[in-house]
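Table S2 (continued). Query chain:
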Amino acid sequence: MTSRPAAPRRPGLPAPGQPAFVALGSNVGDRRAHLEAALVALGATPGVRVAAVSAAYQNPPVGGPPQDDYWNAVAELVTTLSPEALAARLHAVEAAAGRVRTVPAAPRTLDLDLLSCGDEVCRTPALELPHPRATCRAFGLAPWADVAPDAVVPGTGATVLAHATRLRGREPAAFAALRRVALLRVAAPRGARPAVLPDAEALAAWRARGEGTVGLVPTMGALHEGHASLARRARAACDAVLATIFVNPLQFGPTEDLARYPRTFDADLDLLADVGADAVYAPTVDDLYPAGFSTHVDVDGPTAGFEGAARPGHFRGVATVVAKLFARTRPDRAFFGRKDAQQVAVVRRMHADLDLPGAVVVAPTVRDADGLALSSRNRYLTPDERARALAIPRALDAARARAAAGERRRDALVAAARAVLDGAADVATAYVEVVDPARFVPLAELGAAPALLVVAAKVGTTRLIDNEWLLAPGDDA
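Corresponding output:
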């Protein structure tokens, strides 16, 4: 396979475009194939990039004649099309998939609804934005909250998370009926592998030749769909995508798994080729930390407690390597995953305090079809351990349901999650807490802003961390 050109390329879509959200549904024939084909068609549309897609949820039909269950998902797009042009494109994709409009709520091969497009609010015979039922259907709000919980639904003044929380409180059975069934593939023809930049000199030369905006995706390798989702978001928002692969020794303690950490470089390059990354900075330890290196970055505040207490020195290593990567790559945007929530808080604090370049973009956690948050360490789990690890997302969901029902007290929310974890065999809970997502300090009760429920537990020999937004109904209105 040939190498990708070393200089950043400039695809056809001018940055930044505007976000748009599309609900996808199918309950006729091969539902997965219909949804994935629609994503391919949207991604091939001039002026449209697919930034993210939720998992597919199976749910009972609502109204209409007797019919099979639906698969539903939500895609986030970045587009330069007008709302009218995008809606017309959605109808064309439906027609190409064999959609025939008969009676209302009839079975359909493909259903594409434009939920929102930028800040547009309109009510015309041809188009209503936001979609008139965007905030009243569990099968739409649940996947929408997966990809963009903090997006504000135009004209409502409230986020997707707030609308989902309120509806969950009113219609818990509708959310309970949803079943996550698959991660949808955002397929694209595999391009050439990204250019590999082995040292600071090669990186500087690549960066000097480039034009336009650069999106940075820092990783330690052993890539999975969670990393791919970050690169996909970077591809949609930026002119060039630069990933880093570096297993950072500074963030591993003396008893931790540095030597055991999986190295899958060739497979990582293939995954990055699939999502259109342009280059990979893959330095050696000596390149990033040359002889005599003696400067480290310590961040107070959000490093205290939780992972900071369990892994002394870990966040010092994280902050040091991220600061160096920002200085060397000079990104316009850097993309991090919400699963490592305390790391996100540390990076954001350091980024603001040290006036580092670019913007920090935090993307929602990507979960497998069974609900387990994707992690490079999941490959350490045996099949039995993985089944037991599902107690973690169940615990998070139990607390989220209590919050949606109106519970604000920290003790009650933590107890709801702990009851699930304590009832699971051979799951050793390290902590369960409700925290402020920026300061990472415990909260006594939920307030007006979303809080995070954070969990760490050991299953077998593998330590897993996860988190979920908590919000009480009526907040963020």
